């Protein structure tokens, strides 16, 4: 699904146009953000693609929704 990632007022958020849904990102797997999962405030977990660490925001990416996060 297409997801726009942006930073506003120091907070990362994800906007899903098809669902007209914007939620804060409350947890990230990787500090660099890219190539790992992010958890939204509504509980959704999205897999983000690998991108360069210095990728500028806002950006629209193709993300995959998954049900759970594997615990280490």
From TrEMBL:
InterPro entries: NifT (IPR009727), NifT/FixU_barrel-like_dom_sf (IPR024044). Transmembrane segments: none annotated. It comes from the Bacteria. Pfam families: NifT. This is Nitrogen fixation protein NifT. It comes from Novosphingobium decolorationis. The lineage of its organism: Bacteria, Pseudomonadati, Pseudomonadota, Alphaproteobacteria, Sphingomonadales. The gene is nifT.
